[in-house]
Amino acid sequence: MKILVTGGAGFIGSHVTKQLLDRSHNVVVYDNLSRGFKDLVDNRAQLVVGSISEKDKLIQTLRSVDAVIHMAAFIIVSESVEKPKLYWKNNVVGTQILLEAMREAGVKKIIFSSSATVYGNPDKLPLTENSPVKKAENPYGQTKIEMEKVIKKEHEENDLSAIILRYFNPYGPTELHDPETHATPNFIKATLTHQPIPLYWQGEQVRDFIYVEDLAAAHVEALNLAGFHIFNVGTGEGTKVKEVVEKIFEIVGYRVPTQDLGKRSGDVAALYASAEKIEKELGWKAKVAIEQGLRRTIEFFRTLA
Fold first, then answer.
1. For FRET with 8, which of 43, 68, 74, 189 sits at 20 to 30 Å CA-CA?
2. Considering only the top CATH level, what class is 2-171+208-235?
3. 211 an active-site residue?
4. How far apart are CA 295 and CA 195, in angstroms?
5. Which H or E run contains 232?
6. Counting beta carbons within 10 angstroms of the beta carbon of residue 194, is it exposed (0 to 12), middle (13 to 18) or buried (19 or more)?
7. Centroid of chain to Cα 266
8. Using CA atoms, how far apart are residues 42 and 132, in angstroms rounded to an integer?
9. Tell me, what's the pLDDT at 266?
10. CA 50 to CA 98: how far, in whole Å?
């Protein structure tokens, strides 16, 4: 198949691109490189530098494409609080433009990169795909809810096959966001440079940490589906943030201090997935245990030191 990956020069998108190519798919990466990295794009893929707001360029690029994996979005929670209109325009309006371009180009399948943030502060754990979608804790999360809505509407009105993947907490090599707001790479970088680890809530929050290569594999498997589907993509297990810190210390063989940052608004105490549906319907299951994933991630960041 010929697959267009929007945001394919980013952390997760680059891993998805590599796995698609390894499975002999033809891949076009569509990215404006404002937050992605050209060096992360596999040289077997075609790179088109463009924004999802450029409808004519999208239509041209979508010719002869079989499916779109849509990962182009702004993701920094704190920035979304400061600039909610920017996030609405880029994430929601950008998705609407992409869907219009797909319709005009005759592309009938999309796999969408969504987020567990759509569940808000959950009433019950583990989260299943039937758990209620709530008003998000921040504008970033709300854009994911709205993006899901416009994709579902396109499915209902124009028979678009749509597979929505709700990520939990991805981590792994090549996570190079600037600024970096995700916990795991910040913990590792602080440890490797012998700096205090920044820790909210004393690390008591529970999260579902999913290794990026496992996460990428779910996108490849989803290409075989038609119709409308929603899947949680997580390990099905919750891990306390402070346990991740302890595992990092064990792997590197020394400890660094932690910096107590207190409480942080918008955080939920615990968030982890039920992975039963995706395992049953897609045959997908997370394979990389957190210690193994952390070892690989630490090795990557050591190469940058």
1. 189
2. alpha beta
3. no
4. 19
5. strand 228-233
6. exposed
7. 19
8. 38
9. 64
10. 12
> What residues of the chain score a pLDDT lower than 50?
none
> In this prediction, what percent of the chain has a pLDDT beyond 90?
85
Closest CA to 151 of 180, 190, 196, 108: 108
Q: Which of 221, 260, 218 is nearest to 114 (CA)?
A: 218
Closest CA to 293 of 225, 256, 239: 239
pTM of the complete model: 0.95
Q: Which residues pair with 232 in a beta bridge?
A: 166
- Please state, in angstroms and as integers, the Cα–Cα distance from residue 61 to each residue in 12, 95, 113, following that order: 21, 16, 20
Residue of 38, 36, 222 lying closest to 114 (CA atoms): 222
CA 273 to chain CA mean position, Å: 15
Structure tokens at 211: 């290794």
Per the residue annotation, which of 30, 87, 119, 140 is the catalytic one?
140
pLDDT at 201: 84
Residue 149 structure tokens? 């809505």
Reported as a single tens digit per residue, the pLDDT across 68-122 is 999 999 988 889 989 999 999 999 999 999 999 999 999 999 999 999 999 988 8
